[in-house]
C-alpha cells in the first residue's frame, strides 16, 4: 500500500525506489509550498470580501470607500417643496442628519438627528436612528437614498446626496 501511494503522489518519470527516496524531500517541499500558497490565497480572498462589506454579519465601519464626509441633497417630499438633507458621516461611525422641509413654517421645518452608521454589504450603509433605520448605497462619491427595506427607489426624481466635503 505504501509503495502504491508514493507512486501516485510522485511524478511519473520517477522509476526506481532509490530515485523515489531522493525525490521525496523535493516533493515534500513542493507540497508544503503549494499548501502555503493556497492558504495565502484563501486568506487574501477572505480579507478582501470583508473589506468590501460582503459579510453581512460584519457591522464594522468600512472606510475603504472613503465614506466619512459631508453629503447634501434635495429629495422629494409629498407635502412640501422638497427636503434638503445635510448628512455628516464621521470617521468614528457616528453621523448627524439635518433635514429641512422647504415650504413649511420656519419654526417647525428643520430637524437634526444623530446616530451610528455601519456598512451592511454591497456598499450599503445603515444609519441607525432611535425611531427608524435609514438605508443608503454608495454610488461613486455620492450616496443614493434607499427605501425602508434597503432597495433602490424606482423613480425619475432625485434620491441622491452629493459629497460636498471630506475629513482631512
- How large is the radius of gyration? 28 Å
Distance from N terminus to C terminus (CA atoms, Å) equals: 66 Å
Strand order of the largest sheet: 1-2-3-4-5-6-7-8
Overall mean pLDDT stands at: 74
What string gives the helices and strands in order? HHEEEEEEEE
Secondary-structure content class? alpha+beta
Which residue ranges are poorly predicted, with pLDDT under 50 across at least 5 consecutive positions? 1-11, 31-63
CATH fold descriptor of the largest domain: Lipocalin
Query: Helicity range of the residues?
Result: 25-40%
Describe what you observe in this structure.
With 168 residues, the chain is α+β, with helices and mostly antiparallel strands. It has two domains: 2-51; 69-165, Lipocalin. It has two helices and eight strands, in the order ααββββββββ. It has helices at residues 2-9, 17-51, and strands at residues 69-75, 82-89, 94-102, 110-121, 124-128, 133-139, 142-145, 160-165. An eight-stranded antiparallel β-barrel has the order 1-2-3-4-5-6-7-8. A hairpin with a 4-residue loop joins strand 2 and strand 3 (94-102). The longest helix has 35 residues, at 17-51.
Key features?
2 domains, 168 residues, Lipocalin, eight-stranded antiparallel barrel
